[in-house]
Write a structure and sequence with these properties.
Blueprint: E1 2-3, E2 6-7, E3 25-36, E4 39-50, E5 90-99, E6 102-111, E7 115-125, E8 132-145, E9 167-180, E10 190-200, H1 233-236, E11 239-250, E12 255-266, E13 271-281, E14 290-301, E15 316-325
């Protein structure tokens, strides 16, 4: 299939970022082809995007300041002056497959004049017929670009005296855990995972080796396993983090509970942790399609180089209530 109008794009590093109901959308050419039933090939050429706070489509991204070319985009990491050239969009190619409990995907992105990226991930779930199915996942990121618009503009995520002149980023991650369904009359299906990510520091690179992510930075909607609701390693720069996450359906899927705890150790933003609680209620019946969701995260720590990660270096509590009706 080939689409040349408007479509909600859902790729790992260029997605709908709909953690606040309104999705990010894109003006793009999109093509999808399946040479085999379990193989999917995708290609896209994006020209403009519309953030969750934008009234229209613009040639910018989350590195541009609010008000650039009239765009009220908000929530990113603005590092470019308003005099900088417009963003020229993105070219991307992806391939994915599923077979016998295994999933794998690989993507190439050319964020024009920002970064080139290769991303891959894979996972395997062992079906045991015991109610507990172990799983394992891996992911890898590699970025490069010598002529990025961010050259000499992006410090190491808030540390302005560590500024690079080339994109050079490497990151990897692992995840282990299990899917389970051991008390279906009470709880329903659930998942428990432990994850780890690391972004390798690179001296002389933009952000000290930070991942350049034009459409997720500040939104915390990247695919790294350890990203939290408020932020993750993409926002904080090189370092490592681990995360424990529990997802649980309750009372025949009338409730969905998600809890998590993440700990980060970074080179330029110190150490921090995030505790997360997420509960969604699905009334059903005459209100089928309605969901009421409350998400709360408590972030602590992060003081380094006199640049606190949280306001005044105090505990930061962030609460989001989301009402959604699918019709």
């Amino acid at each position: 299939t080939v689409t040349a109008f408007f479509r909600i794009i859902s790729t790992p590093w260029m997605n709908n970022s709909d953690a606040r109901i309104l999705p990010a959308t894109y003006q793009a050419l999109f093509a999808q082809y399946s040479p085999l039933p379990d193989v999917k090939l995708e290609a896209l050429r994006e020209f403009r995007w519309k953030s969750r706070t934008s009234p229209n489509y613009y040639k910018d991204n989350l590195y541009y300041a609010t008000g650039y070319s009239g765009d009220p985009v908000y929530g990113g990491v603005p590092k470019l002056p308003n005099s900088d050239p417009q963003a020229q969009g993105t070219l991307a190619f992806g391939a994915s497959t599923t077979a016998l409990g295994a999933k794998a995907q690989a993507w190439y992105y050319d964020f024009y004049h920002f970064a080139k990226m290769f991303y891959s991930s894979g996972s395997y779930t062992l079906r045991t017929a015991t109610g507990i199915d172990p799983l394992v996942g891996v992911q890898f990121v590699r970025e490069w670009e010598n002529n990025s618009l961010l050259n000499s503009s992006l410090g190491a995520q808030g540390v302005d005296n560590i500024i690079g002149n080339t994109v050079n980023s490497s990151a990897w991650g692992i995840q282990v855990g299990a899917n389970f369904d051991i008390a279906p009359s009470i709880f329903g299906k659930g998942q428990l995972t432990w994850s780890y990510n690391e972004i390798v520091p690179h001296i002389g690179a933009i952000g000290g080796g930070a991942i350049v992510s034009p459409y997720t930075i500040g939104y915390a909607t990247d695919p790294l396993y350890t990203t939290s609701m408020i932020r993750g390693l993409v926002e904080m720069g090189p370092g490592n983090g681990w995360k424990v996450k529990w997802i649980q359906n309750i009372l025949h899927k009338q409730f969905l509970l998600m809890t998590a705890f993440a700990r980060y150790h970074t080179y330029y933003n110190g150490n921090s942790n995030d505790a997360y609680m997420d509960l969604t209620y699905f009334p059903g019946g005459m209100l089928k399609g309605l969901s009421v969701r409350d998400r709360m995260e408590v972030a602590n720590g992060g003081l380094v180089h006199d640049a606190p990660l949280n306001p005044h270096n105090k505990t930061f509590v962030y609460n989001r209530v989301m009402l959604t009706y699918m019709f």
